[in-house]
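thread: overnight batch results

M.L. [08:02]
morning all. the overnight job finished for the chain we discussed friday. pasting input first so we're all looking at the same thing
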Amino acid sequence: MKNVKKEHFPTKICPVCNRSFSWRKKWEKDWEQVKYCSEKCKKNKP
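M.L. [08:03]
and the structure it wrote out:
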């Protein structure tokens, strides 16, 4: 993901809050498994 502008990062939709969130460096190794945009949403999942 080096030299990629922010607007070209992959995005996903959070199933809890229905907001889109973008790829982050901390998720680099497990982006495929990321489902929630934040810890708050992860704790409030149905």
